[in-house]
Amino acid sequence: MGSCNFKSEDLETTQTFSKSQFQFHYCIGKGGFGKVWKVEYKKTKDSFAMKEMAKARILAKKSVNSVMNERKILSYLKHPFIVNMQFAFQDRENLYLVMDLMPGGDLRYHLGRHKRFSEEQTKFFISSVILGLEYIHNSGVIHRDIKPENLVFDSKGYLCITDFGIARVWVPDNAKDTSGTPGYMAPEVMCRLNHGVSVDYFAIGVIVYEIMFGVRPYLGKSRKEIREEILAKQVQIKKEDIPSGWSLEASDFVNRLLQRKPIQRLGQNGPKEIKEHPWFKGIDWNQMLNKQLVASFIPNEAEDNFDSRIQMGNDPWKDANSEAVQQSTLSLQNNSTQDLFKGYLYDINQNNNSMENTMKNK
């Protein structure tokens, strides 16, 4: 056991950030370990999204590796179509992850509000996500939790990918990594088999199908029920089932993404074959990448695009007093427990300066 005379100054002594340097506005979301806030960095007046995660809950859920893995992955990913990390720091009770603010809210919120989107709007959404996935996959990472809740709109109406909590650097032997969201998980993940980048494209197929029909292709109340549904039948959109206003190319795109066998799935050989599918004919990928196109759907920033606003001070966790959380809270007094979170500190400015110095010295 570690010492019980833990002091706050023992935490990463080079840390230059604290919670007090940010003005908290309101909550824009809730996650497995805490809340996501809209904040303002007082020094620059810039607005960000801050994920505040309770260490006690992380420990109780045995998820230290997950949150540290997300921080590590985000430290070397930076792209216009992902939600980039700006800062990361900690105090005795919490981890803080400061990210780009996406004022348009997530796709799930807007699906619930608007019910359906047109084919052209959907194509624009998916083109954005494909560019994000192309970069992520070329960086050797699988996201593994692509779903409407993790796709968020920027101010121009482009969708960006967020939440890398269960993302992993790809390795050939990854059958044990079976985390994800039932309903969007590829069959090979459901069945605990080795998997690659095409699991993210299967999820894209589910999302487009969901927008087309208002329901996911495979339903069930549990992971087991959904797995049985997937194994029982191969969903295929037939010509006569295509909704009004949607094309044969769109249905073919979905059908090829929802293939149960990865080897038969569009995207198995990388993003190039996704971008070359006839559904994307006419898309100028360079203009998309540079965000030079006018989006067909742009959330109104003057409206409340978040459905999770709650007042500061409210405790959102029903299990906050559970025995596991209480024990984890007590253990935070130990240096050995706090050591589990060593290396969480991140400052994009220092990181960029370090990279520039490295390039100069080459």
UniProtKB/TrEMBL annotation:
Source species: Stentor coeruleus
Coiled-coil annotated spans: none
Protein name as annotated: non-specific serine/threonine protein kinase
PROSITE patterns, sorted: AGC_KINASE_CTER, PROTEIN_KINASE_ATP, PROTEIN_KINASE_DOM, PROTEIN_KINASE_ST
EC number(s) recorded for this UniProt protein: 2.7.11.1
Reactions catalysed according to its record: L-threonyl-[protein] + ATP = O-phospho-L-threonyl-[protein] + ADP + H(+); L-seryl-[protein] + ATP = O-phospho-L-seryl-[protein] + ADP + H(+)
Taxonomic lineage: Eukaryota, Sar, Alveolata, Ciliophora, Postciliodesmatophora
Family designation: Belongs to the protein kinase superfamily.
Pfam families: Pkinase (PF00069)
